[in-house]
Amino acid sequence: MSVADNEPPAVGDPGKLGRGQRIAALEDFDKTLPEGKRSVRENLFGPQPAISSEPLTHATQIINLSRSAGDFEGLAAGRRIAGVSRHFLGEHAEARSLAEA
Do residues 62 and 77 touch, judged by C-beta distance below 8 A? Predict the structure, then answer.
């Protein structure tokens, strides 16, 4: 039987997997759950919180205030907070440029 037949995928020793085989991921087991049931990841770790852009808004305010006040330490802190915020929003290239500056 396969995942399509509602059976969990086989998990093997990574050193002994045959050609075309792979270690099962949590998402593979989600396919075996009855309709409307929570995912395996959600059952293990709880619901994932929504990612907010509010910290990015605050970081932008810190950057603007620090620039106008000539506060270079505040500017660096604001850029760091903005970089971390962008990273968690999935904007990795922008996050990297903020963290490196």
Answer: yes
